[in-house]
Design goal:
It is built from 18 helices and no strands. By secondary structure, it is mainly α.
Length: about 450
């Protein structure tokens, strides 16, 4: 008599939490880190051209982040709908959703081209009166916006793969594109191997070529049957119902991702009135902090499904263990970042050719803001936890406290009291506020779990 074969237990409910979390986190951590590398590498090479060139690239960051935010937002909305359709065996519906998402990003691409051509210069002119900086930033901004199709289409295909649990394909494609960007940057910026010297424009062109290489690779793998979900031309006629369902999820996600763009724009306005060099210094900090926060965000991406699975399985003890483990791992990442920013800021900034006033201001910026890194672990992890539990308002509350309330309100006051250092102090204050509120909200969630003192 043969024994009936039992279905394998889901590892999200059985595998040791630390090992499970780290295993699932590696692909998104690498992907997010790679995405951040484009702007960082550009800045490293551009900084050799001087502070004005570095400031020009820094001013364009909000525009680049908006492109990324829209692409990820549409991708997340599509991902959610595809996952449910595939899980329910509705393959045709999944194809329709993917096709509508592709239509959406193509329409956004047209919008970004128009913004790049007609609105980029007026926007950038609000943050600098220097004609040379404005010229370089406008050139850089127009190139990345008019070639934004690489990022937009790539991220839709990436989320299609991820919706089916295929994580390593998009990660590999991104890595190849990043390597191409790193190779081309010095060649196109400084004019090597027969290539004309293009300066800031060369940095932008190298960036979009890297993005297009990633796109070509993922399209090739997609067309070879790497995914069961297909984008079909006949499904790309506008469908209001599907498009509405995508944007119900996409809009909140996009708004949260746009917060850094809004914050940077607000602070650039305040910094410009105090010190043009302060804009470049803050731009350097914002690029460097991605080395700390992007790996942390990748880990939170892995934490969400584990928390959601165990919450659904009513295994609240394991759910809480996952949150505590996430806090520990992110805390370690943040501690490493804090030590580096406090101990060797000069060495880090040397990669960006920071000297004189820029070095002095940037060093203070890195040291002061990094004092809030460790406490920010609480806000970062709990925001992801609340998303996994479907409590979006709690997650939004933490995000608003970290980026859109404390800093914009206090910065104009603190800059009058303590100059640029006063602005930097508002960052750890915001993280403390978010951690306190986030902790109280999480305790409230735990108290309402049925029959469990997690």
């Amino acid at each position: 008599m043969t024994e009936e074969k039992k279905p394998a237990a889901n590892p999200m409910g059985t595998k040791p939490v630390m090992r499970l979390l780290l295993t699932m986190a590696v692909p998104p951590m690498i992907s997010m880190f790679t995405t951040s590398m484009y702007n960082i590498v550009d800045s490293m090479y551009v900084s050799a051209m001087g502070e004005k060139a570095l400031t020009a690239v820094s001013l364009v960051f909000p525009l680049q982040n908006i492109i990324l935010s829209v692409a990820v937002g549409v991708g997340v909305g599509m991902n959610s709908l595809i996952s449910r359709a595939v899980g329910a065996g509705r393959g045709e519906e999944a194809d329709e959703v993917a096709s509508q998402a592709m239509l959406a990003v193509l329409l956004h691409f047209v919008g970004f081209v128009l913004i790049g051509l007609f609105l980029a210069k007026p926007y950038l002119a609000m943050y600098t009166k220097d004609a040379e900086i404005l010229g370089m930033s406008t050139t850089y901004g127009r190139i990345v916006m008019c070639a934004s199709f690489g990022t937009l289409i790539y991220l839709v295909l990436e989320k299609i793969f991820q919706a089916e649990g295929i994580m390593y394909v998009p990660m590999g494609c991104q890595l190849v594109g990043a390597v191409v960007n790193i190779i081309l940057d010095p060649i196109m910026i400084f004019g090597k191997f027969g290539c004309p010297k293009m300066g800031v424009a060369g940095a932008a062109i190298a960036t979009v070529i890297g993005q297009i290489v990633s796109l070509v690779l993922i399209v090739m793998l997609y067309r070879r049957g790497g995914s069961q979900v297909k984008v079909r031309l006949e499904y790309m006629r506008f469908n209001g119902i599907i498009m509405g369902n995508i944007y119900k999820i996409a809009i909140p996600s996009t708004l949260v991702m746009c917060m850094p763009s809004i914050l940077v724009s607000v602070l650039n306005g305040i910094l410009t009135s105090a010190s043009q060099v302060g804009v470049a210094a803050f731009g350097l900090y914002y690029k460097l902090q991605t080395f700390v926060y992007q790996p942390s965000s990748g880990l939170v991406q892995a934490l969400r499904p584990i928390v959601g699975y165990n919450y659904g399985a009513r295994n609240y003890k394991r759910m809480n263990e996952t949150v505590r483990t996430g806090l520990l791992v992110v805390g370690v990442i943040m501690t490493v970042g804090t030590v580096l920013f406090l101990a060797v800021p000069g060495f880090i900034l040397s990669f960006f050719h920071a000297q004189g006033e820029l070095l002095t201001i940037s060093t203070a910026c890195l040291r002061i803001i990094s004092t809030g890194f460790i406490i920010s672990s609480v806000g970062v992890v709990l925001a992801g936890t609340f998303e996994a539990l479907g409590i979006g308002k709690y997650s939004l509350t933490i995000s608003l406290l970290r980026q859109m309330t404390v800093i914009p309100i206090l910065a104009p006051i603190m800059v009058r009291i303590a100059g640029l250092n006063g602005i930097w102090v508002t960052f750890p204050l915001a993280e403390i506020a978010a951690a306190v509120v986030g902790g109280l909200l999480y305790r409230k969630v735990l108290r309402h779990l049925p029959g469990q003192n997690a």
